[in-house]
UniProtKB/TrEMBL annotation:
Coiled coil: none annotated. This is CCA tRNA nucleotidyltransferase. InterPro entries: HD/PDEase_dom (IPR003607), HD_domain (IPR006674), HDIG_dom (IPR006675), NT_sf (IPR043519), PolA_pol_head_dom (IPR002646), PolyA_RNA-bd (IPR032828), tRNA_adenylyltransferase (IPR014065), tRNA_CCA-adding_enzyme (IPR050124). One of its GO terms (molecular function) is RNA binding. Keywords: ATP-binding, Magnesium, Metal-binding, Nucleotide-binding, Nucleotidyltransferase, RNA repair, RNA-binding, Transferase, tRNA processing. Pfam families: HD, PolyA_pol, PolyA_pol_RNAbd. It comes from Microbacterium hatanonis. Its EC number is 2.7.7.72. PROSITE patterns: HD. Its cofactor is Mg(2+). It comes from the Bacteria. Residues 265-405 form the HD domain. NCBIfam families: HDIG, tRNA_CCA_actino.
Amino acid sequence: MLNMAEGVARLGALATSPTVATLARAFADAGFELAIVGGPVRDALIGRAVNDLDFTTNALPDDILRIITPISTARWDIGRDFGTIGARVRLPEGGTEQVEVTTYRADSYDGVTRKPTVEFGDTLEGDLVRRDFTVNSMALRVPAQTLVDPTGGVEDLLARTLRTPADPAVSFGDDPLRMLRAARFAAQLGFDVAPPTLHAMAELGESLRIVSPERIQGELVRLLQSDDPVRGIRILDETGLLARFLPEVPALRLEVDEHHHHKDVYEHSLTVLRQAIELERSRHPDSAPDVPLRLAALLHDIGKPATRRLEPGGGVTFHHHDVRGARLARKRLQELRFDSDTIGVVSRLVELHLRFFGYAEGAWTDSAVRRYVRDAGDELERLHILTRADVTTRNRRKADRLSFAYDDIEARIATLREQEQIDAIRPEIDGNRIQQILGIGPGREVGEAYRFLLELRLDEGPLGEDAAEQRLREWWAARG
């Protein structure tokens, strides 16, 4: 429950902080208005950490630059066309803090692109009513410490509701990306989306076509970085927006008939995502949110719809859905313009997520454990988390058996790592030495010999260079 008295006290502390006080004094001395705006005001009121400071003013960009130059160590004007000047403001006690100051805006949109016709405004209130949601449309005038809330943001904070300041059809028509932000803020803040706003999201989904894949990807990443991305994913799915840029996830709602029964793959995937986040936090409490891991958890079963087979007697199979899912994940993430490293990690995790379940059915040899580590490579820890999170059965005995089995494989990996340095498994003989021993030059045979030695190393563990050379000569002789 929002405690307004505490929120006002936090706002007061923010307004008198060294950075804000320094800027407020400079703008007041120059005869201009200044206000903290948007997220910092919202977060201070509800007790969230304030990480970035955004200001708005009636000063034009040239005036902003003139005012902040004497009190800053660096400035950048990459956003000058939009009225934004950035700076690192010197603090009285030493050090600096990064801020952005933007001229009041009164933009208009053509409905064809997301690019507004930039127009500078005259009033703070006019600037606020053009923003995305009421809870982000509040400002704190400084140094006067006057809260400006023309759209009822405080009331919506108390109600834990996301609502657009204007008619949602107009707001989303101006900038369709705001619909994805609604889901992201709902996940970040734990708020509900107001019914009229939710209805407009469902009605205006087609307008996402004017939003670039890079922008959609950015919102998806921010959603996955939130404390409860499942909340936002449900909103995107219920409004039909998710199907427009990540259709493989809604497709996980597989048809279930009275004869063939299987778990709800959509709900299972959301549970795996939630459990992966819990494991990520418990195993790496000080690390930033792991977006590739969370993407893999969400997408790990997207190969199931294409591989589902209804078997006689009521069974359902999904043979090779891991391989199919890896290909689908790669294609979709490429379309969303993810970087190649993320695409590689996610598709590899999706491809490997079933590998462990063979271990649970029967003990692996040391060779099989080595191959598991080799195939996972740098993603072994992520694979540990994903595989553990993939257990969503309500059968406690089965869940415990799988958990104990994974405890066992991690212990065996640790033992083998200590004994054999399996993180860097490679033959005792490299390519140059292979050429010397066999009397051959660079070519296909060197690669084949190397793979032979690698398989030997995986199967039998460390051999020593002399034994490896003998086995290599025997292999070469057997080839004729």
